[in-house]
Amino acid sequence: MRAFAVSDLHVDYAENLRWVEGLSTQEYTQDVLILPGDLSADPLLQARCLSALRKRFQAVFFVPGNHDVWVRKADMRDSWQRLEDLDALCQSEGVDTRVRRLNGCWFVPLLGWYDFSFGQPSANLRRRWADFRHCRWPDGMDEMEVNLRLLERNEGPPAHGLVEEPVITFSHYLPRPDALPAFVDPERYWLLPVLGCHGLEQHIRHWKSRCHVFGHSHLNARRQLDGVLYINNAFGYPSETKHVRKRLLPLPLERLEA
Ligand SMILES: [Fe+2]
Ligand SMILES: [Fe+2]
Q1: 236 C-alpha to center of ligand 1: Å?
Q2: Number of compact structural domains in the chain
Q3: pLDDT digits over 78-93, tens only?
Q4: CA distances (Å), 75 to each of 24, 88, 139, in order?
Q5: Residue 156 burial (CB < 10 Å; 0-12/13-18/19+)?
């Protein structure tokens, strides 16, 4: 069994969808794929993408991203409902959204959102960040509450049985600002407030994860920080060619052994 990761497939773009549907139907049947969010804003394309990948891999693990819960059609109630609908879609497609142990390795999805714990958004960011227009939360929920409610849903490690087996955690959002690639100065990066939250990092440490895969920034990174390997391997938009890789990334399972 190999484990691969790719985030931010954004199959709203036809060429991204073509890449997904062009993946080999034979090569990965014994393998696992981790998909840390941002498939599409369109539920039909989400279904098509998940179905295509599920046919190709032994198991597909998914956590939703911000684009996955945009509310852009009259028949969509709100972003929370979109999260629920997406989870139901994953269950019907056989896509994993819960903790699962496979071949002696734990795969741990971590839900979350950004909560401005990395910094407060500037007026410019408030104006330009599309989620502020396309995400709609019920009952006046703000980003902090969305994040808290999602973090609460995350499963903790079992009281017995984790032993020394490798754990791979994954989230759409960044668990710490320094998981950005080294060429980015987090202090000066204007998008930092909407990139993640510190709460995710606590879950990673609680699980004693040795590898955390994330997406969202479209800035690929591979950083060893405090004993955890943080990996971002985004597919990204067609116009993005510099800081993303248009390929599946194999995860170093053998290096995660105790
Ligand atoms: Fe994305
Ligand atoms: Fe995202």
Answers
A1: 6
A2: 1
A3: 999 999 999 999 999 9
A4: 35, 17, 18
A5: exposed
Mean pLDDT computed over 246-253? 94
Residue 201: how many other CB atoms lie within 10 Å: 21
CA distances to 45, 132, 145, 181 from 77, rounded to whole Å, are: 18, 16, 18, 37
Q: Looking at this protein, which amino acid is placed at residue 147?
A: N
Ligand closest in space to the Cα of 131: 2
Residue 89 CA to its chain's centroid (Å): 16
**How many A from CA of 38 to the centre of ligand 1?**
5
From ligand 1's centre to the CA of 235, what distance in Å?
Answer: 8
* CA gap 81, 185 in Å, rounded: 36
Residue 216 gets the label, from left (phi > 0), alpha (psi -120 to 50) or beta, of: left
Rounded Cα–Cα distance for residues 182 and 222 (Å): 9
Q: Is the pLDDT of residue 258 over 70?
A: no
Domain of 124, CATH number, reads 3.60.21.10
pLDDT at 242 over 90: no
Are 108 and 146 a contacting pair, CB within 8 Å?
no
